[in-house]
Write a structure and sequence with these properties.
One of its GO terms (cellular component) is plasma membrane. Pfam families: LysE. It comes from Halobellus rubicundus. The chain is an all-alpha fold. It has one domain. The protein has ten helices and no strands. It is globular, with a radius of gyration of 18 Å. The N and C termini lie far apart (39 Å).
Length: 204
C-alpha cells in the first residue's frame, strides 16, 4: 500500500473528520470564549488546539494511547489534570476579567496558543478516540504509522480552519459587546463555561 491513503479512503476520512469537528465540544467552547475576548486570542487558541491534535496523533501512532486505555490509573490522572486545568482557566478568567479588551491586547501571543494546546492535549478521551479512529483509515502494513501521521495532520488542518472561523466570528461579536459592563459579564460567562467543562470532564 502507498504511503498516502487511496483517494476514496482519504475523502471518506475527510468527511468523517468534518462531521466530528463540527460537533460542539470543549475545544469549540474554549475557542468561542477566547474569540469573544479578541479575534487574535481566538485564532491563537485555535492553532494551539490544532497542535494538540498533532500531539494526539503522535501519541496514537506510538501506541501510548493504548497504555492510557489499559491503565485506568494513568487515564484518570490525565483526565483529572485536564479537568483541573479547565477549572483553573475559568477561575482566572473571572478573577482577572480576562475578557476585557485591555487584557486581550496585553496577553502574550504564546499564552493563548499554549493554553489551546493544553486544553486539547490534556483530554485523554481525544487520545483514545484517535487510537480508535485513525487505524481504520490508515490500514495495516509497515507504512501504517506514516499514513496515521498524514491523516492526523489532515485532521489538524481541518480543525484549524473550522476553529479559526469560529474565532473570527466570535471576535466580531466581542467587538460589538465591548463596554466595561458587558465584558465583565462575558468574563463570568466564559469563565463559568470553562469551569463547567472541567467539572463535566472530571465526572465523566
Amino acid at each position: 500500500m502507498a504511503l498516502f491513503p487511496e483517494l476514496p479512503t482519504f475523502l471518506a476520512f475527510c468527511a468523517a473528520a468534518v462531521a466530528l469537528i463540527l460537533t460542539p465540544g470543549p475545544d469549540t467552547m474554549y475557542v468561542l470564549t477566547r474569540g469573544i475576548q479578541s479575534r487574535a486570542a481566538g485564532v491563537r487558541s485555535a492553532l494551539g488546539i490544532s497542535t494538540g491534535v498533532l500531539f494526539h496523533t503522535a501519541v496514537a501512532t506510538l501506541g501510548l494511547a493504548a497504555l492510557l486505555r489499559a491503565a485506568p490509573v494513568a487515564y484518570r490522572a490525565v483526565k483529572y489534570a485536564g479537568a483541573v486545568y479547565l477549572v483553573y482557566l475559568g477561575v482566572q478568567a473571572i478573577r482577572n476579567d480576562e475578557f476585557g479588551a485591555g487584557d486581550a491586547a496585553a496577553e502574550p501571543a504564546a499564552g493563548s496558543f499554549r493554553r489551546g494546546v493544553l486544553v486539547n492535549a490534556l483530554n485523554p478521551k481525544v487520545a483514545l478516540f484517535f487510537l480508535a479512529f485513525l487505524p481504520g483509515f490508515a490500514g495495516a502494513g509497515p507504512d501504517s504509522p506514516v499514513r496515521m501521521l498524514l491523516l492526523g495532520a489532515t485532521y489538524a488542518a481541518l480543525t484549524a480552519v473550522y476553529l479559526g472561523g469560529v474565532a473570527v466570528a466570535s471576535g466580531r461579536v466581542g467587538a460589538l459587546l465591548s463596554s466595561s459592563t458587558t465584558t465583565a459579564r462575558l468574563s463570568w460567562l466564559g469563565g463559568g463555561a470553562m469551569i463547567a467543562l472541567g467539572a463535566a470532564l472530571a465526572v465523566e
